[in-house]
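Q: What does the assembled structure look like for these inputs?
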Amino acid sequence: MAHLLGGIEAGGTKFVCAVGDEDGNVQARIKFPTTTPEETIAQVFAFFDQYQIEALGIGSFGPIDINPDSATYGYITDTPKLAWKNYNFLGALRDHYQIPFVWTTDVNVAAYGEYKKGAGIGKKNILYVTVGTGVGVGYISHGELYSGRSHPEGGHILMHRVEGDDFAGVCPYHGDCLEGIAAGPAVEKRTGKKGYELTPTDDCWQKEAYYLAQACMTYTLTFSPDIIIFGGGVMKQSQLFPMIRTEFLKLMNDYVRVPDLDQYIVHVALGDDAGITGSLLAAATVLA
Amino acid sequence: MAHLLGGIEAGGTKFVCAVGDEDGNVQARIKFPTTTPEETIAQVFAFFDQYQIEALGIGSFGPIDINPDSATYGYITDTPKLAWKNYNFLGALRDHYQIPFVWTTDVNVAAYGEYKKGAGIGKKNILYVTVGTGVGVGYISHGELYSGRSHPEGGHILMHRVEGDDFAGVCPYHGDCLEGIAAGPAVEKRTGKKGYELTPTDDCWQKEAYYLAQACMTYTLTFSPDIIIFGGGVMKQSQLFPMIRTEFLKLMNDYVRVPDLDQYIVHVALGDDAGITGSLLAAATVLA
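A:
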């Protein structure tokens, strides 16, 4: 018997809301830009009010508070999107719908979608990295949404700089962290062009591949996932994948054993639907 | 009713074997240098053969194979200590003793000891970092020994180099990874002296604090632990702790919320006994 579930992929630039079933099949969806919390949440309500959903999975941009014991559980915390800073996102939804919720990050639901229906099928430890307007990291550990004290923010790790690259980086918090030198805005600042306007052989991609390979090294040496799945706008540059694998092999220098790299560093299988699919699948985990 | 348990802290330079109870209390112990596998394992047997132990917890140097489905489960894999490379450590013990085993890394048992009886009491997610002849990282996630596909090897992450520091690093695999620029041999190579021969105000410690703070940043943004506990010979330089906290604060730049730093970045409470205590406590988890 199919259940009706809701999913929200709340990104910093756009929201996707969907209703669907516990297998992650979308039955209806809507997409709109992320504006102010009040305006945006009104659109969320207008959509879901049309349906009788039984549970709602929310993958939000962040950082967010995911500690149920915290006074600010369910809040967006220190985002550079100032209108959303300290916004009680989950609280607003809970006041409106008396159903169970799953509250996690946008990248965690994408990781969950890939785990259940995408490139991570059959694996237990799935690292998902989106490289777009920012760099975000979601993780599924032994089949569950990972959290420690809080959720990973692995896009903001500092990087060993490649020789001769003195680009200062664009992260407002950390300058030349991974996001600051490798996300879409960094590509644009380096080259004066959007990523999709560059040729696949532009010099910029070699640096990009080096930094993403180094990130894969760091994630391998910390989380030790079964697979690293890349999504996001920048990763539509498919020439990056073989370059990242080559750089990763050089950097690791055979120190720890990893799977065949064609199976280890891969493109998101569900494409832009990973997040919304995962948010429905996450909602299914709290059905009574 | 007290059980008699065994614990092994198998380090690259020395082995500690102990018998004790399920509260981690050591009743007898022996320590000897790590030589060849044959010689060393004979000493392990000679010690434990005197007792009727019911379970054995092993924390080994590595990298090691901790995947029960792997053909080389229980092996030490790619260590630079060539005599131990591809040695079936757990297999040798299993052939000799027909009891349950816990097989993990030396740093994971130290993390477990600190979780149960040390600085991590009352917390769930404990990151343990040893800085000695190498840099090793153990992790307790939600009260359990963490593993992904394999165990963390977080001492070998690459680092953003501090301005003006062009020290090449001494890691045979990665040159200037964290271990290559911050472990004991790196301190000695930089200064021509052992760490304990330097004054607490030597310039070297400022760089050391910066790299360890950056490592804390990376672990915070990946694992997101409740606490980061430092042990190992280099961390006996207690002047490092306030310096690491100051650098960490600057690097993080308020991006994610962390606990009070005096409670977050701390010294190992069990001192040199963290590993052997943790190996006994780990053994207790597999008692029938």
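Chain A has two domains: 5-108+273-284, 121-269.
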